[in-house]
Amino acid sequence: MKPLVSIIMGSQSDWPILEHCSKTLDKLAIEHECNILSAHRTPDLLREHVMLAEQRGVEVFIAAAGGAAHLAGVVAAHTLRPVLGVPLDATSLGGLDSLLATVQMPAGIPVPTLAIGKPGAINAAIAATSILAVGNPDLRSRIDAFREEKREQIANSKDPRTTS
Ligand code: RP5
Question: Which distant-in-sequence residues (6+ apart) come within 8 Å of 102 by Cβ?
C-alpha cells in the first residue's frame, strides 16, 4: 500500500518521540513512511523528498524538529499538502524555542502546530487521520474507535494508589 502520511524528523535523536506518532498511525491503520531529513543539514534532500512523496501519493506531512525548528515550515514551503508541525524538546530551552519556531509562520504558508513532544506526536497522527477522513466514514469510525478505547481506559481506571 502507498503511504498516505510522511513523517519527517530532523534527526535520529527525535525517533523516541516520533515513534509514538508512527505507532498511533499504525493503530489507526494509516499507511505511512518515516524519514530523517533536516532543513539545515540536508536541505536539497529534504526538498527532493517532499516532491517525490507527493508524486507517490502522500497526502499529509508531519514534520518534527527540536533545534532551530524550521523543518515543518520548509516542508510547507515546498508543498500544497497539509503540513503538521511537532515541536520537540531538544535544547536547553525545553522545547519552547521549537514551538515558537514551528508555529510562528508568516501569513501565506501555514503550519498547524501540535503540542511539544509526545502529546504533539500522538495528536499529529490523529490530526493527519482527521484530514484524511474528510468524506471518508471508514476513517472517521477508526478515530471514533480510538477515542472510545481512551474513554474506556479512563472510565475503568482504578484508584491510582493501588496500581503504582
Ligand atoms: C534538530 O536538532 C533535530 O530535529 C533535533 O531535534 C535537534 C538535535 O539534533 P541532533 O544534534 O541530536 O542530531 O534539527
Answer: 65, 69, 71, 72, 73, 85, 86, 87, 111, 113
